[in-house]
Design goal:
By secondary structure, the chain is an alpha/beta fold. It has 2 domains: 8-240, Phosphoenolpyruvate-binding domains (TIM Barrel), CATH 3.20.20; 248-292, no CATH class. It is 46% helix and 11% strand. The chain has an 8-stranded parallel beta sheet with strand order 1-8-7-6-5-4-3-2. Helix 9 (196-205) links the parallel strand 6 (187-190) and strand 7. Helix 2 runs parallel beside helix 4, helix 5 (97-109) packs parallel to helix 6 (137-150) and helix 8 runs parallel beside helix 9. The protein is globular. The protein starts with 7 loop residues before the first helix and ends in a 10-residue tail after the last helix.
Length: 302
């Protein structure tokens, strides 16, 4: 009831411990707190807050138009809705190194377990689109050092994302990742790798946890969890999957109503009211309310 009962510090400690466990952690994207609650209930290891999904939910393209305030507000609400650790997409840190420092502090205070910063130029682009540009290694390491210095909880995870694979090539992107680890990155997110061999090359190149992005309609093959674990990947995210599932169903449903004049044929595919109330733990709120408001008003005014 009323969201998570686990402290943000405990979630971060759990995330750190899980990263060191050697097993693959699966983090589906949650574009809302309610989705995060369902991610927890279905047994996943954590929640991912995607910048692309957040932008899309605001009816904006993923080109750096969202603000730190918007990201922190949504990310904090999602983190509070679940007992799982939540990793958030912080784009390029919303500006220069000092901005990256403030971004880290704000997102840590909002209850997130970690963030990732990327080495694209501002304004950034979706990682699986063409014509991306990356900043110099020196500029990116400046962002990372600022973020590392700004955190107050040493368990807050700073992940470095490199988009250099499709810009400078595989070897250069691995060299960048090594530099990012030297700058203090706790984890590496290698964006838009093509296949298993490229994940193997990254695993051999860096000795910190490695994150894989299994997004649909992108440049990476959709590898299953067993394969990723065999390759030595530590975290896999499914960033926009739940949003795409939801929007596909919403669009199909709206077209059906427009055509048929009623939603009657759609009811069997809907989440029932009882199931929604179960997910919200409605009964606990009702019980709590009754335990507080358990008095009656007398007939005469005192």
């Amino acid at each position: 009831m009323l969201g998570s009962t686990v402290t943000a510090a405990a979630k971060r400690a759990r995330f750190r411990a899980d990263l060191a466990s050697g097993r693959l952690l699966r983090l589906p994207g949650a574009f809302s707190p309610l989705v995060a609650r369902l991610v927890q209930e279905t047994g996943f290891d954590g929640v991912y807050v995607s910048g692309a999904a957040l932008s899309a939910d605001l009816a904006l393209p993923d080109i750096g138009l969202t603000t730190l305030t918007e990201v922190a507000e949504r990310g904090g609400a999602i983190a509070q809705a679940t007992d799982l650790p939540a990793l958030i997409d912080a784009d390029t840190g919303f500006g220069e190194p000092l901005n990256a420092a403030r971004t880290t502090r704000v997102l840590e205070q909002a209850g997130l377990a970690g963030l990732h910063l990327e080495d694209q130029v501002n304004p950034k682009r979706c990682g699986h689109l063409d014509h991306k540009s990356v900043v110099s290694v020196a500029e990116m390491t400046g962002r990372l050092r600022a973020a590392v210095d700004a955190r107050t909880d040493p368990d807050f995870v700073i992940c470095a994302r490199t988009d250099a694979r499709t810009v400078e090539g595989l070897r250069a992107s691995i060299d960048r990742a090594k530099a990012y680890v030297d700058a203090g990155a706790d984890m590496i997110f290698a964006e838009a790798l093509a296949d298993e061999s490229e994940f193997e090359a990254f695993r051999a190149g860096v000795d910190v946890p490695l994150l894989a992005n299994m997004t649909e309609f992108g440049k990476s093959r959709l590898l299953d969890a067993a394969t990723l674990e065999r390759l030595g990947v530590n975290v896999v995210i499914y960033p926009v999957t739940t949003l795409r599932l939801a929007m596909g169903a919403v669009e199909a449903g709206l077209r059906t109503i427009a055509t048929e004049g009623t939603q009657a044929s759609l009811v069997p595919a809907m989440q029932t009211r009882a199931r929604l109330y179960e997910l919200l733990d409605y009964a606990a709120y009702t019980q709590f309310d009754a335990s507080v408001f358990n008095f009656t008003v007398g007939g005469a005014e005192q």
